[in-house]
Design a protein that fits this description.
Length: 329
């Protein structure tokens, strides 16, 4: 009998030790995820500010000129941080980086021209349509049937775009069209990156992209503009902030942070970008939307959230947590 009690106590201690180790590991993982989420929130804040900074930069520089400076500086900073990865770059990575850079260049051309010809708030909310375009493109080119929630999100997004962008004559401005095209091509960029990045070093791929976008935009600037450096402190501040915080640091932090958090968390945090953009627009320029515009922006935000959230997995996870809690008790 004593032997049985001794064995049972030993098993209890062993089980308790295993549970404690498991809890310590979970707490550590939770802390890492929280830090990662806060890092992603920081870069989302920077991206929200980037639309305002682009508006300021365009007061002093032409479009391709601004893009080239932004990406050249970001490339140099990222290259310094990840120089070891660049030394190991092969021809395949260079080829893939150039392909992606062409698409990313188109994305930023539409983003820059769109920002120039529409309001900061409109640009922010329309850029978030990338999340809606991904399942649409997947259904067209990859023959992946979209979920019901995504279809519902697309319907809401179309209503939101109409309320946000159409004027009394039911016409949409050029700037808004450019912003929608930006979101579309960024969805293409994300999908192609997803298939390409598996075969090469993703960090080298990302850094080289920045350099190629800088080169492409500089060529267009030479052909279509008069390239120059910023002439005053305000233009320098906007370019450096765009390059350092909104591009280089955002790129580096995203690579690090996304290793320690879930795609759902990432998607939800990124939906805050248009909210930050609207807040910056209101604080620094006094820009506001009409009631119709706010209603459209709200519908767009809801549509993005619907597309991002995995409700089934969330419910299953909560049920599992409840069962585990009851079992432990």
């Amino acid at each position: 009998m004593n032997q049985i009690n001794f064995l049972s106590k030993g098993l209890m201690r062993s089980s308790y030790g295993t549970i404690c180790k498991g809890r310590i590991y979970e707490e550590k993982e939770m802390k890492m995820q929280l830090r990662a989420d806060l890092m992603l929130l920081m870069i989302t804040f920077f991206w929200g500010a980037s639309i305002l900074l682009t508006k300021i930069g365009l007061n002093y520089l032409q479009e391709y000129n601004l893009i080239s400076l932004r990406f050249f500086i970001a490339f140099l900073l990222s290259g310094v941080v990840f120089y070891k990865h660049l030394f190991k770059t092969d021809l395949k990575t260079v080829k893939y980086a150039f392909i992606l850079a062409v698409i990313l260049f188109i994305v930023y051309v539409f983003a820059t021209f769109g920002t120039k010809y529409t309001s900061i708030s409109n640009a922010g909310f329309l850029f978030s349509l990338t999340v809606i375009f991904i399942p649409i493109l997947s259904s067209i080119f990859l023959k992946q049937k979209p979920e019901k929630k995504v279809v519902f999100g697309i319907v809401l997004a179309i209503l939101g775009i109409g309320l946000l962008t159409l004027n009394k004559q039911l016409q949409i401005g050029y700037g808004d069209i450019f912003c929608i095209l930006c979101a579309l091509f960024y969805a293409v960029h994300i999908m192609i990156t997803g298939s390409i990045a598996k075969h090469v070093n993703p960090i080298s791929l990302g850094v080289l992209q920045l350099g190629f976008v800088g080169v492409l935009s500089f060529i267009f600037s030479i052909l279509m503009e008069t390239p120059k450096f910023p002439a005053n402190s305000e233009s320098w501040y906007s370019i450096l902030a765009l390059s350092i915080f909104c591009t280089a640091i955002a790129f580096i932090v995203q690579i690090i942070a996304q290793r320690h958090t879930t795609p759902t968390h990432t998607g939800l945090i990124f939906t805050l970008e248009p909210v930050f953009a609207a807040v910056f627009a209101f604080i620094f320029t006094g820009e506001t939307l009409t009631f119709k515009g706010y209603l459209g922006a709200t519908l767009l935000l809801i549509s993005v959230l619907i597309a991002e959230l995995d409700f089934k997995s969330f419910i299953k996870l909560k049920n599992k947590e409840y069962i585990d809690k009851k079992y432990i008790e």
